[in-house]
Design goal:
It is built from three helices and six strands, in the order ααββαββββ. By secondary structure, it is an alpha+beta fold.
């Protein structure tokens, strides 16, 4: 899979409201022993990462109508830096952020660091 497709699927994993699709994408993108880090802590393994993504999805996308929007990405060897925004239903930016992904030699995520910067309304 090329980098553009990989990044699009990463954003799709956070955006889809389908549990089946999300789990499929997490399985495709993340190594079995991957770790996800955010400001509240860390979660380990594909199942826990899928559950973390689902909780954010339910809170923000399903309940508030927020949409994830890819701004761009950069790659340096096995490190991806993805820039994105979260948009309200009226297209106002409610947050922007970055996901820093460390990939293994097979191209799967082994570490996912997310940085969320809320935007003042």
């Amino acid at each position: 899979m090329n980098d553009t497709t990989f990044v699009s699927q990463y954003i799709a994993a956070w955006s889809t409201t389908s549990d089946e699709e999300r789990n499929k994408l997490v399985d495709q993108l993340y190594a079995p022993d991957a770790v996800f880090y955010n400001e509240m802590g860390e979660v380990h393994g594909q199942e826990a990462i899928a559950a973390q993504i689902k909780s954010v999805n339910v809170r923000d996308i399903q309940n508030k109508g927020i949409q994830n929007h890819l701004l761009g990405f950069e790659k340096n060897h096995n490190l991806l830096n993805i820039s994105w925004q979260m948009l309200a239903p009226n297209d106002a930016v409610v947050a922007d952020g970055a996901s820093i992904l460390l990939l293994d030699d097979a191209g799967k995520i082994v570490q996912d660091y997310i940085f969320v910067r809320p935007v003042s309304q």
